[in-house]
Amino acid sequence: MTLATAFTRLFGVRHPIALAPMGGSAGGALAAAVSNGGGLGLLGSGNGDREWLARELPLVAQGTSGPWGVGFQSWAIDPGAVECALRYEPRAVMLSFGDPRPFAGLVRQSSAALIIQVTDLDEARQAVDAGADVLVAQGTEAGGHGARRGWSTLAFVPAVVDLVAPVPVLAAGGIADGRGVAAALTLGACGALIGTRFLATAEALADPDAKKAIVDGVGEQTERSSVLDIARGSRWPLEYTGRTLGHPFLDRWRDAEAELAADPHDVRRAYQEGVARGDLPAQPVWASQAIGLIHDLPPAGDLVGVLAAQAEEALARAVAGQPSGLGDRQERQQTPPHAPLLRHHIRQCWQIPIALARLGHRFPLLEECANAVNIDIHAGESSEHAPALGSAAHQPAVHRYAQILRVDGHLIPTLFAVRITSFWRVGRLALPPGCFAGALRGRRAVQACVPNLAAWA
User: Fold this and answer.
1) Which end of the chain is more exposed for a tag (fewer CB within 10 A), N or C?
2) pLDDT of the residue at 408
3) How far is CA 154 from CA 23, 321, 437, in A?
């Protein structure tokens, strides 16, 4: 099953997944990685800082051949910021929080698609009137800023879909794994805009302590408030609050926002002094209510494929009436993180027509490939070709595996098997450490399997 939607067709991407343009955190490397992984990477320019744009725009423009875009906060920018981004010919420009109309015309005059994020139905009507090509319906579960009095994602997305049809809608807020992507699609959205899950990746421009806090945190530790914006002297309009993890200033001022806003000067000074002493973090940890579903810091490009594969599996299980739980934390830690993607490709294309298939024709090339990508060579039990599978130096490390691999209930005779010991991408197939690959007797394809595959499939 391929998750083709109006969104994937509009932008020519493989997966209905977009990176939320998190201000300052979604830099050029992260946006490029998401686009290279088959999604739509959106650079998080936020307030349109020119120095930041000058540094990050070339990174994404040169880092991917796929479609990418830039996101801005409408309340914080001037037209020059949009013009600066458009010079790099992004495929999309996204506007959030505030009136998009002063900037929509600039985008519409370019070749970029206009994406507008909305937090209520009035904003959705305004976005359509402004000529949005795509709307993002953001629920209050989202990390970072959102509506003070908004809707939950589950209720808001179908309401927006019904209101603006046939304009495509992306769901946002509290989506951190493939089940959330699947849920978005069943609500009528054409894909998901995902932030916090991508904040916890290798490429995100976030402090390592903040990433660790996200991985270790749970949803009930987050809350939505304006306290930290006021204490930091941020200019965010009060109708938008920020969802963050716990913070000492939240504990002190949680029930006194009005008092704080009326006379913030002493508190801002105390906040600045606390940061200078190292008693307070310089920045809040922006995090959605879905952080309890985040347990690792993967490469962003690989994460896109994992999310898509999880979504496909969740939809298939729903149709079959099967539960789609991902197991407890211990089980997840024991399962290779790219297992869903691998399962998908085993089912869909166990014969992979790629150049690596030629290894079956010329075994010396297998040894060369093993040296290059760090794989252990394992000969079949009784294969007459075993001596040719590696040099004498490799032989002590050779383990003998059966020449028959079971894939989806089929017994596949093989010439050899290799064990992957470092993450490896073969065409569109992601092979995590611990997986096996084998050449068929026909020497025309490579197929993959994993330990306990029968339990996975």
Assistant:
1) N
2) 40
3) 25, 21, 41
pLDDT surpasses 90 at 128: yes
- Nearest-angstrom CA–CA distance, 38 and 311: 14
Q: Which two tokens stand for residue 38?
A: 């088959």
Q: How far apart are CA 273 and CA 267, in angstroms?
A: 10
Higher pLDDT, 332 or 256: 256
* pLDDT of the residue at 94: 98
DSSP state of 397: G
> Which distant-in-sequence residues (6+ apart) come within 8 Å of 124 by Cβ?
118, 135, 137, 160, 163, 164
- Other beta carbons within 10 angstroms of residue 454's beta carbon come to 10
Q: Is the bond leading into 166 cis (omega within 30 degrees of zero)?
A: yes
State the burial class of residue 409 (Cβ atoms within 10 Å of its Cβ: 0-12, 13-18, 19+): exposed
Distance separating alpha carbons of residues 260 and 194, to the nearest angstrom: 32
Each residue of 255-267: pLDDT tens digit? Answer: 777 777 777 787 8
Domain boundaries, the chain: 1-333, 335-456
Calpha distance 414→416 (Å, rounded):
6
Which pTM was predicted? 0.73
- DSSP state at residue 201: S
Q: Where would I find the beta strands (DSSP E) of 186-290? A: 191-194, 222-225, 240-245
Strand intervals (E) in 113-239:
113-118, 134-138, 144-147, 169-172, 191-194, 222-225
Tell me the C-alpha to C-alpha distance, in Å, between residue 396 and each of 299, 379, 393.
34, 12, 7
In terms of average pLDDT, the best of 232-236, 284-288, 384-388 is 284-288
Measure CA 452 to chain center. Answer: 27
- CATH architecture observed for domain 1-333: Alpha-Beta Barrel (3.20)
**Which of these, 138, 88, 129, 81, lies nearest to 106 by C-alpha position?**
81
Query: Model confidence over 146-186: pLDDT tens digits?
Result: 999 899 999 999 999 999 999 999 999 999 999 999 999 99
Question: What does the pLDDT read at residue 370?
Answer: 35
pLDDT above 50: residue 80: yes
